[in-house]
Amino acid sequence: MMHFLIGDCSDVRDFLMDYIDHRLPLHTMVRFRIHLKVCPPCARFLARYRSSVDLTRNLLQDPPPEELVSLTLEFLDSRLPKHGTGLDAPGEAERDLH
Amino acid sequence: MDELLRRLRAGDRGAFDDVVRRHHGQLFALAMRLLGNVADAQEVTQEAFLAGFEAIGGFEGRSKLSTWLLAITYRKAMGRLKRDREDRWQSSVDLDDPGTWAGQRSVGGITDAPDNPEQAFAKAELRRLLESVLDTLPGDSRALLELCDLQGVSSADAAEILGIKEGTVRVRLHRTRRYLMEEMRRRMQREKTP
Question: In B, residues 40-59, which contact A (CB 8 Å cutoff)?
């Protein structure tokens, strides 16, 4: 009975992502939290899992390369037909003025 | 109809420019994560925008424009990977193989490196280590990390971009995160050992 109420460690590992994303049904989330309170290894695992995701995010996020945006715009300018409005033709706002 | 989509369909070059400025970072980051070098990633990004704009008439607006463009980028980058067959990015890891997990226990000692000058070297080393682990992952796993953990794309949108089920996205993402966590710990311990 106690086992059912608390859940076991493999349940915790299986439900980890849903728990982090707040996708667990209420009763499962309550069981999950109770298990974390009484199971230090699972609580540590959860903390490490979270910190690992944060670490990846913090280490790998680079600012967007501005000069590459200009290159892409030039590339598209040379490849897209020039029948539209905008930079190469009068924009809607401009046409509205005439 | 969405105003931006209407302008794109009308061939409004200003709208194209707006979309490029808004989404270039996302598309380039995904291509970079898959291809690993700036020249190829930039080329794929350009091709993806071009293909997207040329086919904009077929975009029905049921998904986000960014999701649609990321899906094009993913297909083009994966296509290039397959064509090139470069061993550099050949995955050496099968996350579905139970053997991958044999003998591995929970990670310890991984903490976010404080972003101050004293820790700059340690952070650079950590990044080098992390990228070396990422190099061993299959392309779809790298794409999942890029989309879900770095760009904050939802699992539903990631499923659409990668052309797989949402449940599969969540299982693979979880396995990829765990693998990264365990492998980082293993390599950090190995580097500490004299």
Answer: 42, 45-46, 49-50, 53-54
